[in-house]
Amino acid sequence: MASTSKDRQPLSAGEFIELMEQTRAEFLEGKSPFRGDNITGRSVEQIADSKRKFHTGGDPNHRFEGERYLNTTDKEVRRKQLRKLVDEGGQDTVGGPMASHPNLARWHSNEFGISNEEIDQLEMEDADPETLVKEGWWFDVNRSSPWPVAIASCMVGEGSKRLPGSVEHYENVVATARREFAKLGIKNVDRAVQLIIEHAPFGADMEHARFGEEVVRAAVDTPELQDEALKAFILTMQRNARGRV
Fold it and tell me: pTM of the full predicted structure?
């Protein structure tokens, strides 16, 4: 008779994280786990078209982070999750220096000729069916999963930035973006690259990556939670691999 999770002992934290990284490597089949390889080779019009697709249907403003916060019962984790909400939703709302990620996305789009009025109109339109399915699943997994599983799913995107070579990779991405955008005639290159910088492992995003690993090590500690977390990890990789802007 096949064993169930109740018959098994959980993997140690180190063993489970190693399993996640082995799963990532098998899924990627030698491809880089990092983003930013599509900076070069596109025209202003092509970049603007991709941004219009991004804005269509509305920016969810990292509401999934709110789902995680509402579900978290551990006080220390909850405080760190609240700080993450501030980082994503706008440090400037509490007197900090950085705008929200949706506003940074607007800055980027503005520099490629898309006005705030056009973005407002795009956000009121219906998203395409594939986006609705992907985003619907993503919000559901963060809303309905145990909070350690929901937070552990961040190991796919943010969590990849804890891997060796990530800082060097994103330093190159930012430098390449600056050169490429200047070559394309973008007037305010600093404003255009700010969204890329904010998603690089130079500050808050590295803290977020380490926070995700801390939660995996401390709270994904039963066979059942490890099974759910690994499933969410795999499905998140599949979601991110399709139609990523």
Answer: 0.88
